[in-house]
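chain below, 222 aa
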Amino acid sequence: MSERGQVTPARRRGLADEVADCIREAIFDGRYAPGAQLREVELSGDMDVSRGPVREALRLLEREGLVHCAWHRGTTVTSLSVDDVAELDSLRGALEDLAVREVIASASDEDLASIAKTTDTMERAADAHEMVRCDIAFHDAVFAAAGHRRLADAWDGIRCQVHLFLLTRIGRSTQGYLDRIPREHRELVGALRARDTDRALALFAAHRRLAVDVITGADEQS
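prediction:
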């Protein structure tokens, strides 16, 4: 018996994916801040598409955690609650600790150079939103260098939400941000290159904690 026709043909990338890309980039660029309303009619008019692809795109973004759809409020860019911040930070920390251990144990010098290269772009970041993109690129490079496919997949599953987390952080305060972030990441690279597991884990934890403290206002209480 022929096996042809037993599986559904793969769908080509459609218009909804392109619309989702546009909305996602608008969120990451700061054009739609957390809590901003996303109206299908306006989005379809702005992008010159029908409401169907916009509706499907918003469902895709909801699965990524970037937007929230509610029948009585419509669709809004996700605003992270205190519980959201705590959950995301704890999950990111667990994944990142494993990534750091894997990088130190097995990453090549070329892998470490790729991580270090992302810090060079931070020096040229023109604004806070561009710096957030550089920050995400750094952590992308760390997970890639870990050489652990399932770990990389797990990071990819929360990556957009971490980006939103960092956008929330700069929405709270950008004081000293453009100067501090490159310096912090150079320290992270130094610990990775030294293959110093304890120091690297401590520095990555402090890096995450600072962002959480800014979002929750804990930095103002210290």
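The mean pLDDT is 92. The longest strand covers residues 67-70.
thats it, cya
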